Amino acid sequence: MTRAELKVAVVNPLLSHGWNEMLLSCDNCTIFHSANWARLLAESYGYHPAYFTLSEQERFRGCLPVMEVNSVLTGRRGVCLSFSDYCGALIREPEEFRLLFNGILELGRMSGWRYVEFRGEPFLGAEQPARIYAHHVLQLTEDVGEMHARLRESTARNIRKAEKEGVTVRICRSLQGVQDFYRLHCLTRKRHGVPPQSIRFFEKLHKHVISQELGFTALASHGRRTVAGVICLHFGKNAVYKYGASDETFQQLRANNLVLWEAIKKCAAEGYGSFSLGRTDLDNEGLLAFKNGWGGSRSELNYYRYDFARSAFVPDQERDREMYRNLLRKLPINVLRVLGEIAYRHMG
Length: 348
Fold this sequence. Notes:
alpha+beta, 11 helices, Aminopeptidase, three-stranded antiparallel β-sheet
């Protein structure tokens, strides 16, 4: 195959009939590559999808999704892909990636982007990363005993403790389940000193993803109180633990462990091959310890930023985020919700 036989095109998956079906030919496709995620971002934040595809004689060979973010506060830029933990190119060869990459740079220059960000792109491994995270991935099997044997002893013990304490888990795809999770989401974001995403975003997540049987909510209860929850999304052969939240008042019940274990078992029973635990800041020792206990593999997850003014990959600018987080922790949840409603559109 020659380079001349490969064609790069820019498409909007929301207008491309059969987009999701084409993706299923790629083993590494995730919910973040799907038209459902594109619609969620476009409707929630007004982002414009510009998905780069590679074809050979009209046959789809792969793609690299990009969202154009145009903000009066943070400028115009491309992101692969907004509010995803990772979204690498669905292609096989470095030369194929180079064709897509050059197409993205051309669009970025024409559109006046400040930069383009690539999240978890393995074909950029030789470049300087802007930020580095940890990424944990579990390999799933329908043999629950085998998965349980991989657990760290403390993780298995915490699951048993939650069961002994009477914690129960329900799994649902209802809007009410998402709304119940959102209360926990607000509590958790306040604890971390970060505004919550808007309830409107989560309602659209339900409409475009969860209700389309591409995800579910798992909620842990103690008595009549919902104390922990996760939202998992899935597409093709791959599942991802996208959001987790809990009420710290009930931390001693270890409901976080049981609710995640039930979500993992559900994804395994439904035939998904991998379960991503998402990205983790390298200085978040508590969350790293939690994710290390599930028997998966841990690797570096690199984000890359190509700066158009410098025509080079550049590191992220260091910021004292902890100062802002300490301030946000002191604000009431209703104020944080307003901040989240305003801010996230500019942060994608």
